[in-house]
Amino acid sequence: MKKLIVFLLVIFSNCIYAQFGVRSSENEYDVYVIKKSESNLYGEPVNYLRDAQLSGETQMELQRRYDYNFSRISNAINDLNFKITNLNCDRERKNRIINRFNSIIDYLKKNRINYTSNTQTTQTINYLYDSINTILREEY
């Protein structure tokens, strides 16, 4: 009888450990991914839904940056075009300035600007203004 009670106690404690000793999944979307670490395999919970939501939020942020930076460069180009067309100079000189400025814009289009980078956008805008200043100094 004593052996039976000890045996039942061992089985009961094993069942309790199995219920509480192992991390249970808190979410139905948790998946265990098997990874190898120092020749030991272990399961790591991964929540793919949460990762997909974070990826979606990241994509939205990148799209927001792209739109904002694209509009900054477009506004700079429009501003410079407006200033060029309102220059007080003869038509031939103005056409040379416009052609040189358009070649700079074509160069930028070929080099593919990373519109998600605020730093690269600022550098591109500074390059546009510096280029037009150089063109104007050479033409006048």
Notes on the structure:
- The chain has four helices and two strands; from the N terminus they run αββααα.
- β1 and β2 form a beta hairpin.
- It starts with a helix and ends with a helix.
- With 140 residues, the protein is mainly alpha-helical.
- Helices cover 71% and strands 11% of the residues.
- The mean pLDDT is 80.
- Strands 1-2 form a two-stranded antiparallel sheet.
Layout of helices and strands, plus pairs?
Elements: H1 2-20, E1 30-37, E2 40-47, H2 48-85, H3 91-110, H4 118-139
Helix pairs in contact: 2-3, 2-4, 3-4
| Beta-strand proportion | 5-15%
Mean pLDDT rating: 80
Uncertain regions spanning at least 5 consecutive residues: none
The termini sit apart by 111 Å
Structural class: mainly alpha
**Overall morphology:** rod-shaped
Order of helices and strands: HEEHHH
What percent of residues adopt helix (DSSP H or I)?
over 70%
Total number of beta strands: 2
- Reading side by side through the largest sheet, how are the strands ordered? 1-2
Main beta sheet, described?
A: 2 strands, antiparallel
Radius of gyration: 33 Å
Secondary structure tally, helices = 4
Task: Considering the chains and any ligands shown, give keywords for the structure.
11% strand; single chain; two-stranded antiparallel ribbon; 4 helices; 140 residues; 2 strands; mainly alpha
